[in-house]
């Protein structure tokens, strides 16, 4: 039975803004208060999805949760209809209100950890919703994400969608951004690598707890390999492992300073995957890697064979990074092509091509258990593109977040998306 990997990209929501809420995310902090362009952001994301479709890959999408998150504020004691809740929160606690306006669910790599059916204890694909408990604005996502994943991966014969782990520091879980799978082919058993932080006094939060990866492993019935992210990477601003490493099938592309125990990880990968191919880059600094998001690229297997690296445009702007890319593509490894995409609006908030997607390996039978409304074809892609053009705000200034007119525009956009999903 054939198995493919489907990228489910987060559709960037109409409240995309630069509030600078994410400590340790250098791009997010440096652009705090800038004017965002939600319409352009969503169109850039859709164009990236279309680029992968044009490569012959199967592409899905995950709708954004409704923002501002009036329901989350209501759970914190604010009373009344949505507008009354938002007005009171914006007046009484502007910082909390800004957190409720975040559109960060666009980065679907943080939605869940995905364990392939070839690896799991019961043969199903397991999706464990991430609690994202380190950051307040992201912690609001888990209930909506769980409900949406249950809707998309609706067939319990092939998928097991799990709620988030307890939202405490002991189980702080950032999802697939700190998980890599190494295997000969998508349909074969593989090695699940969980990269975690530790209490080391780093200047930035070390968001992923080892206990989270261990819990996910138990839930899915696997033996995961747990390894520590290097403190140097975190200190440089690699708030997730996928900022300094990306894996696909038997290839691991990583910065030379990505892992604390690089030798132990490579040895485990070589034992589990006999044709393991490490592609290690030591010709650029961690600062160059994080500034360009070279390793936050998508590494995909092409239908005709070989792999392609889907890079952000920022990788072209640094000559040292681009030279590293050319060396990778010319090297003795399966990465044969570098494809540049424009996701500048996402990048300004600290999310590259890899942040925007959740990878789900599925067999032919399991694919039939996915709600088809969330699988893109020409018609659905065009309908989403048109919807965004019509309903997404053109720009949001940080000062606009408390404007009820913006809330109404955002809610109308969400209503239009809901109506579209009922019709396609």
Notable traits:
about 425 residues, alpha/beta, L-arginine/glycine Amidinotransferase, Chain A, three-stranded mixed sheet, 16 helices, about 35% helix, globular
Topology:
Elements: E1 3-10, H1 26-30, H2 38-54, E2 59-62, H3 70-74, H4 82-92, H5 94-100, E3 112-115, E4 125-129, H6 136-139, H7 142-152, E5 159-162, E6 179-182, E7 191-196, H8 210-220, E8 225-228, H9 231-236, E9 245-248, E10 251-255, H10 262-272, E11 277-281, H11 286-292, E12 298-301, E13 307-312, H12 319-330, E14 335-341, H13 344-347, E15 357-363, H14 364-367, H15 378-391, H16 404-423
Parallel strand pairs: 1-2, 4-5, 7-8, 10-11, 13-14
Antiparallel strand pairs: 1-15, 3-4, 6-7, 9-10, 12-13
Q: How would you describe what is shown here?
A:
It is a single chain. With 424 residues, the chain is an alpha/beta fold. The chain has a single domain (3-67, 102-423), classed as Succinylarginine dihydrolase (L-arginine/glycine Amidinotransferase, Chain A, 5-stranded Propeller), CATH 3.75.10. The protein has helices at 26-30, 38-54, 70-74, 82-92, 94-100, 136-139, 142-152, 210-220, 231-236, 262-272, 286-292, 319-330, 344-347, 364-367, 378-391, 404-423, and strands spanning 3-10, 59-62, 112-115, 125-129, 159-162, 179-182, 191-196, 225-228, 245-248, 251-255, 277-281, 298-301, 307-312, 335-341, 357-363. The strands form five sheets. It has a three-stranded mixed sheet with strand order 2-1-15, sandwiched between helices. The protein has a three-stranded mixed sheet with strand order 3-4-5. A three-stranded mixed sheet has the order 6-7-8, sandwiched between helices. It is globular and about 60 Å long. The relative contact order is 0.18.
